[in-house]
Design brief:
signal, hydrolase, hydrolase activity, 8 helices, Immunoglobulin-like
C-alpha cells in the first residue's frame, strides 16, 4: 500500500482549437492522475475486508483491491451483494480565483459503483449508479475560489439498485471497487457549448447538434480542419436566439478522405459560440467522414461497402490494475488487434476508456460499443440515464459503427428507442446473442445449423461471440473452417471471437498469485500480460487481407503465386511484397550463404478480386531450402509471412544421414531378442515377438529411447508373425512378417555400417476414420531439456488449428505450460508439431537426432497436462512419449466439441478398401544414437 503526505495536485490542460488559445476555451484541471501510469494519492478509508477501518492513502485512479483493500470478487452472483464494502475518499484542491463566474463541472470518467460526491461538505447532486459511465455535476456554487476546497467521495462496491447489481455486478467477469478512471474539473464561460454531436457522411455532408447554456442572441460558427491544421472548406454558421438550448449546424465539403479501418482519415471541426460580436466559447472535435448502413436481408455497409467484421471481444483489464488503464495500454491493445489482421473489436461488456476509442479512431478499428448487461439488465429509470451517458461520451468516435443494448439476454427493450433518439448518426442497434432488427447475433453456433438459421437463414448473420478461447481451445481452432464459410456466405457479416486476453488478477492477498477464478478468466488469445498464444498467429494468417492460395514449389515453379484481395477498400498495389530464399542449418552442416532477398512488384488487384504475385527469383533458387514471402500493408506493418518448402524431405534427409563409413553390424539371437552391435559402440535390442526396439546403448551409456514403434491406440498389431533378419550388402536388415491384408504390412529396421538406423513402417487405419494415426516411442520426460527441429513452428498445432506457423529450424526449451493457467511460458513445449523434417532431442545425458523422410508427418512431444476443468479443450493424446503421426486430434471450445466446429474438427478420414500396400500410410525415420 502506498502512503504519502497529502499534496495539492493541479494540472491544467487547455484544449487546442486551431485558433489562438484564449480564455473562451474549456479549461480542464485533473484532480486525479490521468491513468494507471500516472496517479495522485487521495486520502482513503475502506469499510470492510483487508486494511479496512483506518484512514490512509490510495492512488487515484485505481481499483482498491489491487492496492491491498477489501475483497476480490468474481461476478456470477457467487458473493453476497448485501455487504457494505465501501471506499471513502477525501482530496483537497484549489481552483484559481479567475474561475469565479464560470460554469464549472466535476467529471468522473468511471467509478465502481454507487458514487456520492460532496464539495465542502455539500452534496454535488444525486448519487450516481452504474460503474462504467462518465457523469458530472455542476459545482460552480459550491466552490471556494482561490482557496482550498474539500472533495469527499463515497463509493459503494455494490449498488443500492438491484438492477445495477444484476446487470454488472453479477456478470461473468471480475468486479472491483473504486474510482478507476480520471476525475477532473472543466471550466467554461457561463454562455457556452456544453455538448456537441457530429454526423459526417461519406458524401461530405456534415451536420452537428450543439447544446447551449445561458445563450444570448448571436451565432455559432464552424470550421473543418485537416489534422495538420489546414482549413478544409469555408466556415459555416447557424443563428442563435436568446434562450436557445439547441442549435443545428451543417455544411458540405467536396471529396473528403473517408474513415475506414484501412485508411482511418480524421478531421477536426471547431465550433465557436459568438455572443455580442465576440467569440465566447470554442470547442474542437475530432471526427471522420463515413456512412454506416444496415441493409436488411443483405449486410452491414460502411461507405457503401459490405463488411465482414473480423473481431474480438475486449475487456478493459490489466492484471496489476484491474479496470484502471492508461493510454499506452490502449494503444498497445489496438496495435495487437491490428497485427492479428482484425478490423473490429466489441466492447465487452461496457463502454471503454476514451483513450481506447481514440486509438481505434486513429489506428483504424470498427467498434461495437455496449451498454452493460449479462443475462440481466438495468431497470428503465437508471438504464435511461446510463444510455444517455454512454452515447453523449462516445457519440463522435468514427470507429463506433454499432451500439449494443446489453448482452446475452441482458436487454431492456424499453431502452432501444433511446439509442435511436440520442444518436445523431442513427447507427445500427443490436442485441448481442439475440435476433433483432434484421440481425442474428447468436453466440457459439455450430458450424452447420439447419435450414433457415445462422448462415442458412435470412437475417444478417453476425455472431458477437462464436469461438470461445478457453485455455488453448477455440479462438484459432476452428476459425479456418468458420471463416471460409463466413467469407463466402453473402448474409454473413463476420463475427467476434471470445476473447482478447486472459483475465487474471495479481492477488495482492496471495503473494502475487495470478488468479483467473479457475476456468472463468483464461479465455484469451493472449495471456494476462499479453503473451501471445498459438491462436494469435493462426488468426493472423486466417484473417490476412491478402489470401495466398496453397502453392507447391517444384523445380518447374515459374514464380507465380495466386492470391485474393480480401481487403474492403485497399488495392494490393498499395501494399508491398518481398521474398527471402534461405538455406537452413542442420546438426551436421552449416548452411554457409544463408539467404537472398528480393522485392516483388505489387499486383494491381482491387478488393474481392484475384491476381498473381510474380516473383523474379535469381538463378539457382532451387538450391535453397525455404522461400518466404512477406506482405506489408500501406502503413508499413507486416500482414503475414508465408513459408514454402523448396527442398524435399528426400533432399534434406540425404544431406544429413551417412550410411557408409564403418563395419557392418553384428547380430545375436536369444529366445526373445535380436541383439545388435554396430559402429561406435552402438548396441540395440529388438523384441523377436513384436519387432519393437527395447534397448539402445552406446559407448557413453544407455539411451532410454525405446518401446517403439507401437501403433497408436485403436490399431491392430495382432497380425505379427515373426521377426527375420538378413544382410543386404553391409546393411543389416531386421524385418517383421505379417500375413496379407493385415493392418500393418511393413515393419523394417536397417542398421547401416555408419551406425545410422533406419525404420520403415507402413500401416492402414482400422475402418474409415481414426482419432489418431502414427507410432509411439517411450522416453522419460524428466530427462528432456529441449528440442531443436526443422518443421513448422514455433507453436504447436491441432487438427483444426494448422495455420499460423512457419517452416524453420526451431529451438524449444522444455516447459510444462498449461495454456492460460498459472505462470506460463510460450510457446508451449508439449504437443503436436506439423511438417517434421528432423529433430534433435536435447536430454540430460546425450542427444538423439531423428530424421523423417515423409511429408505431412507430425512430431508429438509428450502429453500436455490438463487444466483443472477441461470442458472440450483437453484432446486425446497417444500413449507413449514421443510420436510420429499422420493424424492428430482437434480441440474444442468451452461450449462446443471439436466435431461441431467444421470439417477439420472431425476425426481423420481414410478410405482404402483393397488394402494395397501402395495406399498404406508410410513412415521412414532415421536415428542417430551416437550422442553427437
Amino acid at each position: 500500500m502506498r502512503s504519502a503526505c497529502l499534496k495539492i495536485c493541479i494540472c491544467a490542460l487547455f484544449i487546442v482549437t486551431g485558433l489562438k488559445a484564449r480564455a473562451q476555451e474549456t479549461q480542464k484541471m485533473y484532480l486525479s492522475g490521468t491513468g494507471s501510469d500516472h496517479t495522485v494519492n487521495w486520502q482513503f478509508f475502506c469499510t470492510q475486508g483487508r486494511n479496512s477501518g483506518k484512514w490512509t492513502t490510495i492512488p487515484v485512479p485505481s481499483n482498491w483491491e489491487f492496492q491491498g483493500f477489501g475483497k476480490y470478487n468474481y461476478g456470477l452472483a457467487k458473493d453476497s451483494l448485501r455487504g457494505k464494502e465501501q471506499g471513502l475518499y477525501k482530496y483537497e484542491f484549489t481552483v484559481p480565483s479567475a474561475w469565479q463566474g464560470k460554469a464549472i463541472n466535476i467529471v468522473f470518467d468511471g467509478s465502481m459503483t454507487d458514487t456520492e460526491v460532496k464539495i465542502n461538505g455539500k452534496s454535488a447532486g444525486a448519487i450516481h449508479q452504474g460503474s462504467f459511465y462518465r457523469f458530472k455535476y455542476d459545482i460552480s456554487s459550491l466552490l471556494n475560489y482561490g482557496k482550498t476546497n474539500l472533495l469527499e467521495v463515497t463509493v459503494s462496491k455494490h449498488s443500492a439498485n438491484p438492477s445495477v447489481n444484476a446487470a454488472e455486478r453479477k456478470g461473468d467477469f471480475w468486479i472491483f471497487g473504486g474510482i478507476f478512471r480520471p476525475v477532473f474539473l472543466e471550466a467554461m464561460p457561463q454562455a457556452h457549448i456544453n455538448y456537441y454531436a457530429v454526423d459526417a457522411k461519406a458524401n461530405g455532408n456534415l451536420k452537428a447538434a450543439l447544446k447551449l447554456s445561458s445563450a444570448k442572441a448571436g451565432t455559432v460558427t464552424g470550421q473543418i480542419y485537416a489534422v495538420n491544421g489546414q482549413k478544409i472548406g469555408a466556415a459555416f454558421t447557424a443563428k442563435v436566439n436568446v434562450g436557445d438550448t439547441l442549435v443545428n449546424i451543417a455544411t458540405r465539403i467536396a471529396s473528403p478522405k473517408l474513415w475506414t479501418p484501412e485508411s482511418p482519415n480524421l478531421y477536426n471541426v471547431v465550433f465557436t459560440l459568438n455572443q455580442n460580436g465576440k467569440a465566447t466559447h470554442t470547442v474542437k472535435q475530432r471526427f471522420g467522414f463515413r456512412t454506416v448502413e444496415l441493409r436488411v436481408h443483405d449486410g452491414i455497409y460502411v461507405n457503401n461497402v459490405k463488411i465482414k467484421f473480423k473481431g474480438v471481444n475486449r475487456h478493459s483489464f490489466w492484471p496489476t490494475t484491474g479496470r484502471a488503464l492508461n493510454k499506452n495500454i490502449s494503444i498497445g491493445d489496438v496495435k495487437m488487434l491490428k497485427d492479428m489482421n482484425m478490423n473490429a473489436v466489441r466492447m465487452s461488456h461496457y463502454p471503454p476508456d476514451d483513450h481506447f476509442l481514440d486509438a481505434c479512431d486513429s489506428l483504424g478499428l470498427f467498434v461495437l460499443d455496449e451498454l452493460t448487461g449479462w443475462h440481466q439488465h438495468y431497470d428503465t429509470q437508471v438504464g435511461s440515464k446510463l444510455v444517455k451517458e454512454l452515447i453523449e461520451k462516445d457519440i463522435n468516435h468514427p470507429s463506433i459503427v454499432v451500439w449494443d443494448n446489453g448482452n446475452e439476454g441482458g436487454f431492456n427493450f424499453d431502452l432501444d428507442h433511446l439509442f435511436d433518439k440520442l444518436d445523431i448518426q442513427k447507427r445500427p442497434l443490436i442485441h448481442p446473442w439475440g435476433i433483432f432488427r434484421g440481425t442474428n447475433t447468436q453466440h457459439y453456433i455450430n458450424y452447420d445449423y439447419g435450414t433457415g438459421t445462422a448462415m442458412h437463414g435470412h437475417d444478417i448473420f453476425f455472431p458477437t461471440e462464436f469461438l470461445h478461447g478457453l485455455y488453448d481451445g477455440g479462438a484459432g481452432a476452428g476459425l479456418d473452417d468458420f471463416w471460409d464459410q463466413m467469407w463466402h456466405t453473402p448474409l454473413s457479416a463476420g463475427g467476434f471471437i471470445w476473447d482478447f486476453a486472459d483475465e487474471a488478477v495479481v492477488r495482492t492477498d496471495k503473494n502475487g498469485e495470478l488468479d483467473t477464478d479457475l476456468d472463468h478468466g483464461p479465455d484469451g488469445i493472449v495471456g494476462p500480460y499479453h503473451e501471445k498464444e498459438g491462436s494469435y498467429y493462426t488468426i493472423k494468417e486466417v484473417w490476412s487481407p491478402v489470401y495466398v492460395e496453397p502453392t507447391e514449389i517444384t523445380p518447374a515453379f515459374n514464380g507465380a503465386i495466386r492470391l485474393e484481395n480480401r481487403y474492403f477498400y485497399t488495392n494490393l498495389k498499395q501494399c508491398s511484397f518481398s521474398y527471402k530464399l534461405v538455406k537452413l542449418d542442420n546438426p551436421y552442416h552449416k548452411a554457409g550463404v544463408a539467404s537472398k532477398t528480393g522485392v516483388i512488384t505489387s499486383p494491381d488487384v482491387i478488393p474481392g478480386q484475384y491476381g498473381n504475385l510474380q516473383l523474379q527469383l535469381p538463378a539457382g533458387w532451387q538450391s535453397f531450402d525455404v522461400l518466404y514471402v512477406t506482405a506489408i500493408d500501406p502503413s508499413k506493418n507486416e500482414i503475414f509471412t508465408w513459408s514454402f518448402p523448396i527442398s524435399s524431405h528426400d533432399k534434406i534427409t540425404a544431406g544429413m544421414i551417412t550410411k557408409t563409413g564403418g563395419s557392418k553390424a553384428s547380430i545375436e539371437e536369444t529366445d526373445s531378442l535380436f541383439k545388435v552391435k554396430a559402429n561406435n559402440g552402438l548396441e540395440l535390442e529388438f523384441n523377436r515377438n513384436s519387432g519393437i526396439m527395447v534397448k539402445v546403448k552406446n559407448a557413453k551409456g544407455n539411451i532410454p529411447f525405446n518401446n517403439g514403434p507401437v501403433l497408436i491406440e485403436g490399431q491392430d498389431q495382432s497380425g505379427f508373425q515373426k521377426l527375420n533378419h538378413r544382410y543386404e550388402g553391409d546393411n543389416l536388415v531386421i524385418e517383421a512378417q505379417f500375413p496379407p491384408k493385415k493392418t500393418e504390412p511393413m515393419l523394417k529396421w536397417v542398421i547401416y555400417p555408419s551406425g545410422w538406423v533406419q525404420l520403415d513402417v507402413r500401416y492402414w487405419p482400422i475402418g474409415e476414420e481414426a482419432t489418431m494415426l502414427g507410432v509411439n516411442f517411450s522416453f522419460p520426460e524428466k530427462e528432456v531439456k529441449g528440442v531443436t527441429y526443422l518443421g513448422d513452428g514455433p507453436y504447436r498445432v491441432w487438427k483444426n488449428r494448422m495455420k499460423g506457423t512457419s517452416l524453420d529450424v526451431w529451438n524449444k526449451v522444455y516447459n510444462n505450460t498449461i495454456t492460460g493457467e498459472g505462470n506460463v511460458v510460450y510457446p508451449e513445449f508439449k504437443g503436436y508439431y506439423s511438417n517434421l523434417y528432423w529433430m534433435k532431442l536435447e536430454t540430460t545425458s546425450q542427444p538423439i537426432t531423428i530424421v523423417c523422410n515423409n511429408q505431412d508427418v507430425f512430431m508429438r512431444l509428450f502429453t500436455p497436462a490438463n487444466p483443472k476443468k477441461v470442458y472440450n479443450v483437453a484432446p486425446a493424446f497417444p500413449s507413449g512419449d514421443i510420436s510420429f503421426m499422420h493424424g492428430i486430434t482437434p480441440i474444442g471450445t468451452k461450449s462446443q466439441k471439436p466435431e461441431y466446429l467444421g470439417a477439420s474438427g472431425q476425426k481423420n478420414k481414410y478410405f482404402n478398401y483393397d488394402k494395397n500396400i501402395e495406399d498404406s500410410l508410410p513412415l521412414t525415420l532415421y536415428f542417430d544414437f551416437s550422442g553427437k
